[in-house]
Design goal:
Helix 13 packs parallel to helix 15. This protein has helices spanning 7-10, 18-29, 48-58, 73-87, 103-114, 130-137, 162-167, 186-199, 228-231, 238-241, 256-267, 275-286, 288-313, 336-347, 373-387; strands at 35-36, 97-100, 120-125, 141-146, 168-174, 202-206, 232-237, 250-254, 325-329, 349-350, 352-353, 364-368. The protein is α/β, with parallel strands linked by helices. It is globular and about 55 Å long. The strands form three sheets. A seven-stranded mixed β-sheet has the order 2-8-7-6-5-3-4, sandwiched between helices. A three-stranded antiparallel β-sheet has the order 9-12-11. It has a two-stranded parallel ribbon with strand order 1-10. Helix 8 (186-199) links the parallel strand 5 (168-174) and strand 6 (202-206). It folds into two domains: 7-45 and 290-387, Aspartate Aminotransferase, domain 1; 48-287, 3-Layer(aba) Sandwich (Aspartate Aminotransferase, domain 2), CATH 3.40.640.10. 43% of the residues lie in helices and 14% in strands. The longest helix has 26 residues, at 288-313. Bound molecules: pyridoxal-5'-phosphate.
């Protein structure tokens, strides 16, 4: 029998990291002192109080059965309460919140609810891969919204062709942004709302990094923009905010009809979040302020260690106001893949080539602040020795 992949899988972009992955595995196997700045996955464990809550809750057999698709009401109330205290918004826990198995669950599945073959999905580029793959799985034509340095990595909505806009059903935006570390202001969100109203487009705002920010800067929510709740939703995640990437808890917040469509798709795919994890998520949200302060102090120190260190040796890199990513222009004579490869070969450093996030990421590499400051200092000294 011949096993053939479906066209939708064949349409996914080629995997660009094969060569680097191979070199990385070899380096690790050879016992070289690899420093991994490649993965966007916090190195710090989940805070103890959250783990303790899971332990306790998991002892109760009532948590062992199928969860409700919409999640515990107490979780939705807690999510709404967090939105109120963080963004000043009144969110109805019964109609305007949908818990998710991580925000990737919602981001990747939402096109199945609202997009038909031949419709257009707009996805920022460079960007988080599920914006693209989720659209492809729904049969959409995914159009790129280029994030260019000269525009502060904010998409120029006026540059979108009118015929594309007409076919467009859904648009993904993401601030604070992975991979560029860029932030946006309320004015961009207001422009996105009016663009969406004019063209009848659902806006999906990916807010996974609103809680990782520095220097007193507090990233806004898309839902704070006037009219946002008529045109869209926002995805949040406990993954980065509470070092809970493995736990799979996130939420979609906003327009009830949009959430209803997503809920319908999900009710046919999954059966909710493990109930004990939901209790742990409530614990996390109730301690959000303290946890956030501790975490952002650590990331700020790491950011300054890396950015100052690289500036001192002559690599000019902008200091991100949010996210745990540093988006660095490549050094002279290299493209993204070439620099990532050279950094591994010469300095045992793993960084992510920017073009892995889409073609407009070419010319950059991404370094994640998910290792201790001491290792970042060591990374800087290796870069100095081999590249400057
Ligand atoms: C990490 C990340 C997420 C969160 O993913 P989860 O599924 O919630 O763990 C969402 N969007 C972006 C851009 C991310 O980098």
């Amino acid at each position: 029998m011949k096993i053939e992949l479906a066209d939708r899988l064949k349409k996914l972009p080629p995997y660009l990291f094969a060569e680097i992955d191979k070199a990385k595995n070899e380096a690790i196997q050879q016992g070289r002192p690899v420093i991994d700045l490649g993965v966007g996955d916090p190195d710090i464990p989940t805070p103890d109080i959250i783990v303790q809550k899971l332990r306790e809750a998991s002892l109760d057999p009532a948590t062992h059965r199928y969860a409700l698709n919409k999640g515990l009401r107490s979780l939705r109330v807690s999510m709404a309460g967090w939105y109120k205290s963080r963004f000043g918004l009144d969110i109805d826990p019964d109609t305007e919140i949908l818990p998710l198995l991580g925000s990737k669950d919602g981001i990747s599945h939402i096109p199945l609810a609202f997009v038909d073959p031949g419709d257009v999905v707009l996805a920022s580029n460079p960007g988080y891969p599920p914006y693209n793959s989720g659209g492809i799985f729904a049969g959409a034509d995914v159009h790129m919204l280029p994030l260019l340095e000269e525009n502060g990595f904010i998409p120029d909505l006026d540059a979108i062709d009118g015929s594309v806009a007409k076919r467009c059903r859904l648009m993904h935006i993401n601030y604070p942004n992975n991979p560029t570390g860029a932030v946006c202001d309320m004015e961009f969100y207001e422009r996105a709302v009016s663009y969406a109203q004019k063209n009848n487009i659902i806006v999906c705002s990916d807010a996974a990094y609103t809680e990782i920010s520095f220097d007193e800067y507090e990233p806004p929510s898309f839902l704070q923009a006037a009219g946002a709740r008529e045109v869209g939703i926002e995805f949040h995640s406990l993954s980065k905010t509470f070092n809970m990437t493995g736990w799979r808890v996130g939420m979609a917040v906003g327009n009830p009809e949009v959430l209803g469509g997503l809920a319908k798709i999900k009710s046919n795919i999954d059966s909710g979040i493990f109930t004990a994890v939901q209790y742990a998520a409530i614990e996390a949200l109730e301690n959000a302020d303290t946890i956030k302060k501790d975490l952002n102090r650590i990331y700020a120190e790491r950011r300054d260690t890396l950015v100052n260190g690289l500036k001192d040796i002559g690599w000019e890199i902008s200091r991100p106001k949010a996210t745990f990513y540093v988006w660095a222009p490549v050094l002279d004579g290299y493209d993204s893949t070439g620099l990532a490869k050279a950094m591994l070969d010469k300095a045992d450093l793993i960084v992510t080539p920017g073009n892995g996030f889409g073609k407009y990421g070419e010319g950059f590499v991404r370094m994640a602040l998910t290792v201790e400051s001491e290792k970042l200092k060591e990374a800087v000294s290796r870069i100095k020795k081999e590249f400057f």
